[in-house]
What does this fold into?
Amino acid sequence: MWRWTLLIGAVSLPCLGRAAEDPAAFVRFVEEPTSTCVSRNGVQILVRSTHPSRALRVWLDRYHMGTGTGDRSRSDLRPGAEPEALGCSRSATGPQEWRLVRAAFID
It folds into this structure.
């Protein structure tokens, strides 16, 4: 009887650790100066995953001058991949940003 308890516990522990990870904790926004964005007094906004081994799917909303635009994007971010460009922090008419709506592990 106790052998089954040990076996179940040994199988459950790795699963519990994996389920406890919050995918949103591994999403990072990165800023880079690019000529197009710098000419507008802004920077390029990119998004990347910092998880060492699991792929993420993220949903992002775009805001222009503090107001949601209704644009929602979805991206798959692979471990160790280059960041994905979203756009400039400043458009021709004002500042813009992206906010994380949801993140989930793909696997």
Summary: Residues 9 and 104 are 26 Å apart (CA to CA). The chain has one domain: 23-105. Residues 1-13 have pLDDT under 50 and may be disordered. The domain at 23-105 is CATH 2.60.40 (Immunoglobulin-like).
